[in-house]
Design a protein that fits this description.
Layout (H helix, E strand, L loop, with lengths): L1 E10 L3 E11 L4 E5 L6 H8 L7 E6 L2 E2 L7 H6 L2 E5 L10 H10 L5 H14 L15 H13 L5 E5 L7 H16 L3 E6 L2 H7 L2 E6 L2 E6 L7
Parallel strand pairs: 3-8, 3-9, 6-7, 7-8
Antiparallel strand pairs: 1-2, 1-4, 4-5, 9-10
Helix pairs in contact: 3-4, 3-5, 4-5, 5-6, 6-7
The structure holds adenosine-5'-triphosphate.
Adenosine-5'-triphosphate binds next to strand 2 and helix 1.
Length: 226
């Protein structure tokens, strides 16, 4: 489903964030991307969302070289990816329902279908009953559930989560990763960047470890530390 070929990313100022990275993730896999702060995890995710382009190397997603995308290809590609962030990034002046529906509106959906699909996504994350609340009225765990509903409402092929448990306590962290696992069971590929050792050790999934921009470990059923 996605493949990195010898990807290097050098930011202005000669900062080498990623160095000669190659790996492949198949459809339906669940991957923890681990590494200390500054190891290059966010850069790798930004290459996948096409917020950044590699300095060298190629990235294939669903058979397409995303490095070569031009113009309209980029927003169309991004619609197929669900993003989840540490700080939730919900729109404060929109309700829970509106936050999720907004992702569909951008794609031109309206009316009954928009309502049904938004409510179904909220049901999947257990937040339908709070559809009319505003983000400020939610706990961190609830806010992250809504963010996940927003990420899945378009039926993405890929979910990228950048430190999704960074603002949550251990119980909520487990619940959020369990939710991402449930979504993964339905065939969506999931990549979670994290430095939460407790989470990684609890779930024992594939682990790709970065250190100083290099891929230093790729293990099935891995632990946080090698
Ligand atoms: N836009 C940028 N311009 C210049 N340097 C950058 C930029 N973004 C990241 N870097 C640098 O690239 C390296 C990798 O950063 P990155 O954010 O990918 O690491 P990370 O593993 O996600 O860290 P964290 O867990 O703290 O988010 C770091 O040295 C960082 O300072």
């Amino acid at each position: 489903m996605l493949q990195f070929f010898n990807v290097t990313k050098i930011y202005p100022g000669s900062i080498k964030a990623l160095s000669d990275i190659s790996f492949r993730v198949d459809k339906g896999e669940f991957v923890f991307l681990v590494g200390a702060s500054g190891a290059g995890k966010s850069t790798l995710l930004k290459l996948l969302t096409r917020e950044e382009v590699p300095t060298n190397g190629q990235i294939l997603v669903s058979g397409k070289n995303i490095v070569r995308f031009r113009g309209r290809e980029v927003p169309l590609y991004r619609r197929k990816i669900g993003m989840v962030f540490q700080d939730f990034r919900l729109l404060p002046n929109k309700t829970v329902f509106e936050n999720v529906a907004f992702a569909l509106e951008i794609c031109g959906l309206s009316g009954k279908q928009l309502k049904e699909r938004s409510m179904y996504a909220l049901e999947r994350v257990g937040m339908a009953k709070k559809a009319d609340r505003f983000p400020a009225e939610l706990s961190g765990g609830e806010a992250q559930r809504v963010a996940i509903a927003r990420a899945i409402v378009n039926n993405p092929m890929l979910i990228l989560a950048d430190e999704p448990t960074g603002n949550l306590d251990p119980d909520n962290s487990l619940a959020i990763i369990n939710l991402l696992k449930e979504i993964n069971y339905t065939g969506t590929t999931v990549i979670v960047a994290t430095h939460d050792a407790f989470i990684v050790d609890s779930f024992r999934q594939r682990v790709i470890a970065l250190k100083d921009g290099k891929l230093v470990r790729d293990e099935e059923s891995g632990a946080y530390a090698g």
